[in-house]
Amino acid sequence: MTETISRHFTDDHRRCDRLLAACETAIAETDWSAADEKTTAFQEALLHHFALEEEVLFPELELANPTAGGPTRVMGMEHQQMRQLLDELAAAVRARDRDTCLGDLETLHILGQQHNAKEEGILYPLADRSLGDGSESLMQRLRGT
Questions:
Q1: Can you give the pTM of this predicted structure?
Q2: Are 145 and 8 in contact (CB under 8 A)?
Q3: Average pLDDT score, the chain
């Protein structure tokens, strides 16, 4: 069975969620060495996810379905908001500020869940429908193959 756009990105959401939880555990336990490592892994994964959406998925979707421009702009603005929180989290980890770290992670978790629900419920199914036969070549680009 061919992997869908929805499945690919939803699976990646879950991977990012697991990485966020690992950050939270390390920070809650004040294991700063692990927190440094886990935070870097989480940041890299989430930023990569955003880049795939913004540089690959969104442009293709907007070409195939011009009405998708509104939702992709909203998702891009939310990505920017989460990027800012990632920067704040990284600074708090460097400062070894446990409370700020945990607050940033909680906010990222809440925003991420709301954001993911919109993408998984609306945007990804729209992409699956709109891109149709072109989705396999898109999937190859998303996988880097």
A1: 0.93
A2: no
A3: 93
